[in-house]
Design brief:
heterodimer; A: about 170 residues; alpha+beta; 7 helices; 8 strands; B: about 625 residues; 6-stranded mixed β-sheet; 25 helices; globular
């Protein structure tokens, strides 16, 4: 199973990943209809990506509105999603703020790995975001991932900044 | 009717009457002049009365984006500030990167016209197609980072982008700049002083609108092609993989690094400065919106007398100004001075220029410690440099004189000072030596903004560094075949072509560094056509450049600019004394200038001929100039 890994130190903050994300899904270049965010806090900056943790699915009160794609492992929002029937539980549940209610589509949007070849990965000039096997040597030797696994014992990849954010929670 | 790829609205804020209006972006002007400096030139030509005091409420500042700003096109994170310059009294334009420009379009506006003047400090809060004038008493006097922080906190949106001026702009330092996103600057020509005179501390923008694109699928494909071209160029060493400072050593070898206030073009003492910077002080790269090159550098001096926090810069121009130009050989004071200029809102080029000028005058005995508040302004003394930056920002004592810019300061100092001063039309010389590549002399002389290396374009890059800017299909000779020292009148045709292309960049409002990475007029014409739905090719783009350049020239002619104002300062024409340009001066400047006038179809006084302006579709401008008695 592949996942998105982030090497935050390399990020220049150009936000091409966000532009690619919105263009792939909506044929538009927007920084608000995106499924990942480049955040900058003082001198620290980097993309916050969906780690497919599934908390959104767990929180969702509508059956079948968020399902897991068995092939990619991505959690997908289906047409059954109807924000009128819920309180945006998925948005509240997301620890990273990467699931949104899209006002034009009138349902939640979140990272779907672009069906298996994420456009943010392709767009990044500096290979900050990588889509690699979660059990690859890079991923396994990645100290951040090791730390996450030790602390949370779950098969997910985290970014350093998410880790720090989680510590704060 | 949708005007594709434009936001479609322009905001007009009158601070005297506290009224806010929105106007439609006009399609006919957009097709004639695109956006950015072109659209702004039309507004300022129509609305400004000739001869007004630039710091009076009658002056206006136009903050513009362009048709492909914020569409993900390479270098599309820019915005332009256009105004009558408080420093030069003529056409002023300043381009800047960051994220503010795209965010303005996402907020629903192509541009903001700020007119009149407020009595009390204010800031503008522009969001989702609306705008408010808000009081800024509590923020007035703060540095740029503090201002951004306070405004974001007040409006409660951390993603909002803030344009602001520092204390230098408030004090009307004539070369105060406009900052966005901490360290990105529309630095030159005194836009900050103009905003300061209007008591505008900041303009915060945020929005979530989408920019409509005429043919999105094809646009996406064309964008991919452009990306490939950029990567190919970066991989083969083109563009700015090492940032602008990466070119420092090459400039030194080419004799392109003005030294000792322009006496010569290179200095051996700084040969390992760049490597030292990379090894010890560089923190990371930072890109503007949607940029693949990430030429911005972030640096820090961790300890010692020049310690700074982690902050953007210094770039090439800043470093050249604070090193060779004033014979100062260490990088630490540069990083410190750059940081101070950035937080106070000063243009680093003019600030370092003024300090070097003070050092030259001090050496020649034109000023003494009596004039300088007891400071011994000796060449290259880093402590003096830091002190003078602070003094200029606050207009304190001697700093008050330097804050007037080199033309006014030299006149006040008197003696031979005006002869020594390096400026054209009142704009201080930046740090590229025209003796190293002679087309640069033509640009310095004829640029509408004064002695400017980037408006219209750095022509020297073609003959010195072999950049073709994608112009070979449009008649540029292979840069490798050009003799950079030749002063043949044919140099004028190179300058003309490059400057037209540079002017278009400011109308499309793209970063000019993307012209160095295989993105020529044809590529941008394709992007523009697909984004707007218009049919436009590379030749047409260059014609638009010609049109805007001449419109801005007409603006200057109306302000009294003639041939005599296109002359270069004598000090920079004298032979250089060291390095690869040793013994090289500028001897046939007027010959090249005459040819340039001929190509531009300007008369012997430097006034564009009416028939040319009519051919470009500028009939009212042509009629006005025809009625002038030159």
């Amino acid at each position: 199973m592949k996942a998105l890994f982030v090497d935050q130190e390399k990020c220049t903050g150009c936000r091409r990943c966000e532009l690619a994300c919105s263009f792939f899904h909506f044929q538009t270049y927007s920084l608000s209809r995106v499924r990942l965010h480049v955040v900058r806090d003082g001198e620290i900056e980097g993309p916050i990506v969906c780690v497919q943790c599934g908390l959104c699915q767990y929180a969702c009160p509508i059956k079948g509105a968020i399902i897991r794609n068995k092939k990619t492992g991505a959690f997908l929002v289906t047409t059954k999603c109807n924000p009128k029937e819920c309180n945006g539980e998925c948005v509240n549940a997301c620890p990273y703020g990467v699931i949104h209610i899209d006002l034009k589509l009138k349902r939640a949007i979140k990272c779907d790995f672009c069906g298996g070849s994420p456009s943010c990965v392709e767009a990044c000039p500096w290979n900050v975001i990588q889509y690699i096997d979660a059990s690859s040597p890079y991923a396994l030797n990645n100290k951040r991932v090791a730390e996450v696994r030790r602390r949370w014992s779950i098969e997910r990849a985290y970014t350093k900044s998410s880790l720090e954010a989680l510590k704060k929670v | 009717m949708v005007l594709y790829s434009y936001a479609g609205k322009i905001l007009r804020v009158n601070l005297s009457t506290k009224t806010i209006k929105t106007e439609d972006t006009k399609k006919d002007i957009a097709q004639l002049l695109l956006g950015g400096n072109g659209y702004a030139a039309k507004i300022l030509w129509d609305e400004l009365k000739p001869g007004i005091d630039p710091l009076s409420p009658e002056n206006k500042i136009v903050l513009m984006t362009g048709p492909i700003t914020g569409t993900g096109a390479p270098g599309s994170g820019f915005w332009e500030a256009c105004f009558k310059s408080p420093l030069t009294g003529v056409w002023g334009e300043s381009a800047c990167g960051g994220w503010w420009g795209p965010m303005l379009k996402f907020a629903g506006f192509d541009g903001i016209i700020i007119e009149g003047a407020s009595e009390n400090p204010v800031y503008l809060w522009v969001h989702d197609g609306e705008a408010e004038i808000k009081p800024a008493e509590g923020i007035w006097g703060q540095t740029v980072p503090k201002t951004e922080e306070m405004i974001r906190k007040e409006i409660g949106i951390p993603q909002a982008r803030v344009l602001s001026i520092g204390p230098a702009g408030e004090k009307l330092v004539r070369f105060a700049g406009i900052a966005v996103d901490l360290e990105r600057y529309a630095g030159r020509k005194g836009g900050g002083a103009l905003l300061g005179s209007k008591k505008v501390k900041a303009v915060a923008v945020y929005g979530e609108k989408e920019i409509p694109i005429a043919k999105p699928t094809e646009y996406g494909k064309a964008l991919k092609e452009c990306e490939q071209a950029v990567y190919a160029s970066l991989n083969s060493g083109g563009g700015f993989p090492n940032g602008t400072l990466g070119g420092y050593d090459a400039c030194n070898q080419f004799g392109d690094l003005p030294t000792k206030y322009g006496e010569t073009g290179s200095w051996e003492a700084v040969s390992d400065l760049y490597q030292n910077f990379v090894n010890k002080y560089l923190v990371k790269n930072r890109a503007c919106f949607g940029c693949m090159q990430a030429c911005g550098r972030v640096s820090q001096v961790k300890e010692g007398p020049f310690a700074t926090p982690v902050y953007g810069g210094p770039e090439y121009e800043t470093t050249a100004g604070f090193t060779t130009f004033m014979l100062q050989k260490d990088i630490e004071p540069v990083i410190k001075a750059n940081y101070l200029c950035n937080i106070y809102g000063l243009d680093t080029i003019s600030t370092s220029h003024m300090i070097a000028f003070a050092m030259l005058c001090y050496e020649k005995g034109l000023i003494t410690t009596k004039d300088t508040d007891g400071l011994e302004v000796k060449w290259g003394d880093p402590d003096v440099v830091i002190k003078l930056v602070e003094k200029i920002a606050r207009r304190e004592g001697f700093g008050d004189l330097l804050a007037e810019g080199v033309r006014r300061a030299a006149e006040k100092i008197g003696g031979e000072a005006p002869k020594l001063a390096l400026h054209v039309k009142g704009l201080e010389m930046p740090y590229h030596d025209p003796r190293a590549g002679k087309t640069q002399a033509i640009e310095y002389g004829t640029s509408n903004t004064g002695m400017d290396h980037f408006h219209a374009h750095e022509t020297l890059d073609v003959e010195c560094y072999g950049a073709d800017l994608g112009l070979i299909p449009f008649g540029l000779p292979d840069p490798k075949t050009i003799d950079r020292f030749s002063e043949d009148p044919s140099k004028a045709s190179i300058a003309k072509l490059v400057m037209d292309w540079g002017t278009v960049a400011d109308a499309l409002v793209i970063c000019k560094f993307h012209q160095y990475v295989n993105l020529g007029p044809d590529k941008y014409a394709k992007l523009l056509s697909l984004a707007t739905g218009w049919k436009i090719d590379g030749w047409e783009l260059l014609k638009i450049g010609d049109r805007i350049f001449n419109l801005a020239r007409a603006f200057n002619v109306r302000e009294g600019i003639r041939r005599k104002d296109d002359m270069l300062p004598p000090r920079i024409m004298q032979p250089a004394t060291t390095g690869s340009t040793k013994g090289v001066g500028i001897t046939n400047y007027e010959g090249m200038l005459n040819e340039f006038y001929k190509l531009e179809e300007w008369d012997e006084n430097g006034i564009p001929k009416p028939e040319k302006l009519k051919r470009l579709g500028l009939n009212d401008v042509a009629n006005y100039l025809a009625s002038l008695k030159s």
